[in-house]
Fold this sequence. Notes:
The structure holds two protein chains of two kinds.
Chain A: H1 16-20, E1 36-42, E2 48-54, H2 56-60, E3 64-69, H3 70-73, E4 103-104, E5 110-116, H4 119-126, E6 130-135, H5 142-145, E7 161-165, H6 170-181, E8 185-196, E9 205-211, E10 216-221, H7 226-237, E11 244-247, H8 263-275, E12 279-282, H9 285-291, E13 295-306, E14 312-324, H10 334-339, E15 351-359, H11 373-391, H12 395-402, E16 411-412, E17 418-419, H13 424-435, H14 437-449, E18 453-462, E19 479-485, E20 491-495, H15 504-516, E21 523-527, H16 544-571, E22 578-581, E23 584-587, E24 590-596, H17 597-606, E25 619-624, E26 633-642, E27 649-659, H18 666-685, E28 717-720, H19 738-755, H20 766-776
Parallel strand pairs in A: 1-12, 10-11, 14-15, 20-21, 27-28
Antiparallel strand pairs in A: 1-5, 2-4, 2-6, 3-5, 7-15, 8-13, 9-10, 9-12, 13-14, 16-17, 18-26, 19-20, 19-25, 22-23, 23-24, 26-27
Chain B: E1 5-11, E2 14-20, H1 26-33, E3 52-55, E4 58-61, E5 74-76, H2 89-96, H3 106-119, H4 125-131, H5 143-157
Amino acid sequence: xxxxxxxxxxxxxxxxxxxxxxxxxxxxxxxxxxxxxxxxxxxxxxxxxxxxxxxxxxxxxxxxxxxxxxxxxxxxxxxxxxxxxxxxxxxxxxxxxxxxxxxxxxxxxxxxxxxxxxxxxxxxxxxxxxxxxxxxxxxxxxxxxxxxxxxxxxxxxxxxxxxxxxxxxxxxxxxxxxxxxxxxxxxxxxxxxxxxxxxxxxxxxxxxxxxxxxxxxxxxxxxxxxxxxxxxxxxxxxxxxxxxxxxxxxxxxxxxxxxxxxxxxxxxxxxxxxxxxxxxxxxxxxxxxxxxxxxxxxxxxxxxxxxxxxxxxxxxxxxxxxxxxxxxxxxxxxxxxxxxxxxxxxxxxxxxxxxxxxxxxxxxxxxxxxxxxxxxxxxxxxxxxxxxxxxxxxxxxxxxxxxxxxxxxxxxxxxxxxxxxxxxxxxxxxxxxxxxxxxxxxxxxxxxxxxxxxxxxxxxxxxxxxxxxxxxxxxxxxxxxxxxxxxxxxxxxxxxxxxxxxxxxxxxxxxxxxxxxxxxxxxxxxxxxxxxxxxxxxxxxxxxxxxxxxxxxxxxxxxxxxxxxxxxxxxxxxxxxxxxxxxxxxxxxxxxxxxxxxxxxxxxxxxxxxxxxxxxxxxxxxxxxxxxxxxxxxxxxxxxxxxxxxxxxxxxxxxxxxxxxxxxxxxxxxxxxxxxxxxxxxxxxxxxxxxxxxxxxxxxxxxxxxxxxxxxxxxxxxxxxxxxxxxxxxxxxxxxxxxxxxxxxxxxxxxxxxxxxxxxxxxxxxxxxxxxxxxxx
Amino acid sequence: xxxxxxxxxxxxxxxxxxxxxxxxxxxxxxxxxxxxxxxxxxxxxxxxxxxxxxxxxxxxxxxxxxxxxxxxxxxxxxxxxxxxxxxxxxxxxxxxxxxxxxxxxxxxxxxxxxxxxxxxxxxxxxxxxxxxxxxxxxxxxxxxxxxxxxxxxxxxxxxxxxxxxxxx
Lengths: 777, 168
């Protein structure tokens, strides 16, 4: 009997036993002998000059071992890393050291740190540090920040605008003129993707331990990319790469906010090098809401032209990206590099793109689940609905007219990206069929006749992920896999991917179990430790299975070839006549002549029976670099009802049909979509970082920043189509961010439809909708 | 410095005599003094529920209870939910139904579910969603957590409560 195929099976996860019993180790669970604790003093102002800092009272406090300010780190610890400095950023704008020097530029900006015997003492001592601030006017509205006379974060540059992209628009202008002349329509809108906080349930944290005798630094951190952390950190603290060891233990969520190398990791490393004691820093929730990189915060001015039949002839987008106060790793390129290339969405339409990236007195922004793609998708999906509304046509029909057709793949979009594969119509039709679109429109007509507010919103999204090919980043975004077959036929897999909830240990085990034909229990997948997996790039941008999984797959193929050679020798046959099936190597046509996977593993590792010319051992390392990105897609349809008396919007149905190519584990795929939907719906319905005019953070606890809870979310109805990609040997795309990218526009389209208005900005709070309803009456 | 207080607390069936500052939170006492790090801290305003434990038979948010308030009391944490080497039906159900991803909210979510099912052994979906309003999960979107609680309820109702080996 064969072993049931693992790939495609919705098996439960191998990660879970340690998690459901409370036995997993997260950063705050780590205790080292002699460990000291760090606490951070942060700016209570959005913008202020630092006239002086008196750390003496803190230094004198019992139990305090050290207090550091920017002066202690100057020349010793380098500035916070930036991947691609654009425009003025290349000349120093937005560049900052780990502690504020001369000025603070956002609420929460770190000013000083205390190192003490225990966390309570460290916090007590932070309160004793005296900082003489001279508050300055702050600017938190990105469009105001672009006006002459606005408070300047970097006075020496004379502007808050770091970089602008303004290509000539003659050709697009001609298209718009022609469309109007032919009796078509042009619709304009101002779309806002509000600032969001990532809110992983585990805040950030680090333990840094320096051994003075041989100058080796070990860092435990809740990071999405141990190797990037090692590579960047060693340069910043002046240690060579081989003397820095990063271990990422269990991580309680990241969503992009644990990609960057942050000031606190840099300072903890500095402190352990100075004091020779392990240093632990754990972020509290208010710090996290203030400082862990925020997401989105982009305004798009769009103009879309369409024939009266509904064929879109052109789309103009001017994006304004609010960077916050400083540039961190990807802050300046989220809109331009990740969003712009997919601005035409799933549609065969020409796009003209321009934009500004601007500093304001808010926390730095960076990648947050979707990173640029939700903003681009929001533009494309709102544009389609605006055209439908203007022409009085069904939004599903408008999409069908404009979809990229299957025969057009690989599709070179006018916005830059080359789409690998896609088949958009079946996903839309499936979603319409599942939700019962016709009946739903009829129900809507009925409810409207009764004076009720009901809306239906469609989102036929695509996204770009699986980073990436050469040139997609300053460092190659390949992924590594080191696979060892041990003496008894068990298999160790060391992946450079760094899953933090996605279930990569399970998915990769399934791939290996299938390829070798061995029980999945015989496979162990490890990740996160740069000693055992020396190179890798990490988990973000929906790349773990597409890139990391492909590396694992290729490694199994290499080892299979070597094992065939060895098996052929054992079976006295030619390697070309040997097959591997169900964990046995046998001669084609003579299945009774077989040796087991374990037999071959033993022969390879014990060596004495190996033929000459074959090296002992069964181990290989593969670096897989995809030649292109991959493009998942799908259609979501959402039905909402809005209570006229309270303004409360409620999602009554939510259907998601997603295509992430081949699915290794459908149970995990569903889980990723569920989680993505919650965050995308959260942006639409209730989330939003709010600052006062003076730069005070008003959403500094979970009482004020509304993360959706169970009773606020609908039951999702999921289905899928499968369109494999030719980009990698597994045919997988990515699914980690798709739910978030697809859902926000579906809800936004539904709410606008319910209210019968062209556009409403998110979040759709009861108060906001009530005001609109009230004004309409 | 403040005088420390002596407390006696039974945690997961074991009695501890300890000295704590009056301001020490129960969650810090459990994690830092008793090395029971399964209970997690996810916020600072009692919103998130990652710290839920049972105190004298009731679910509490241990970040909002002082250790001295547990003096003379009984605490059950995630580590004490199941018999040695086994799994509680709720843990089994979360595993089967993929009711967790990063796992950080999970101990608190499981303890809150334990209380929910004690009070309401046959909850509807709406009752589960409402009953878990004190617990935030950022990874799962809640749907599989609801399925897990429904599955756990059925396991416990039909008495299929024999512990399963934790490695299976």
